Amino acid sequence: MKTENPKVFIQRTECIAVSTSLHILLDASASMYGKPMELATASCHAIASACSALKGLNTAITAFNGNYRGDVGLVYPLLKYGQPVHTRINLMPSGGTPLAPALWWVMQQLLFTKERRKMLFVLTDGQPTDMTATRKALKMAHKIGLEVYGLGILDESIKQFLPASSRSIYDLGELPVALFDILGKNIIGIPRI
Question: Which of 13, 127, 161, 185 would be a feasible disulfide site paired with 157, CB 3.0-4.6 Å?
Fold first, then answer.
């Protein structure tokens, strides 16, 4: 106080930057019509908005579905890396749930991001069209160092292929706790109290 210099209290410490790419993969299949899609799009917006406040966290959102026969997977980038968060995330769900091709597409996108840590967050309401192909894609994701998490929307099927890193919600009120449990402590390392 005598020095009249407030910088005397400044302390230099070493800290780790977030440096993380987070890609949210949203199931837009026909089974997501109605309340599941409302919950999922609200979840996507909430995640992207919260993440935009963290410096060093780069977020993207991609929706996926299949054609009416379910044999062709389609992806729809809704928010690209570096783009400001917007509310135009509403979709008209249709087709099947070809999760495996969507996973491969997102993995390619994540490989070219500059951040050191790469995370993939899947929001879905049911079982993928091809469970074997989905398991192979997830195995490769883990092999190349991606962290994969999931949120089941009104369904527990996600636990079949992401048993240790997923949760399910049945109401929008459950969303904040689920997001914190899955992403909050994994992105910034805050243990749950």
Answer: 127
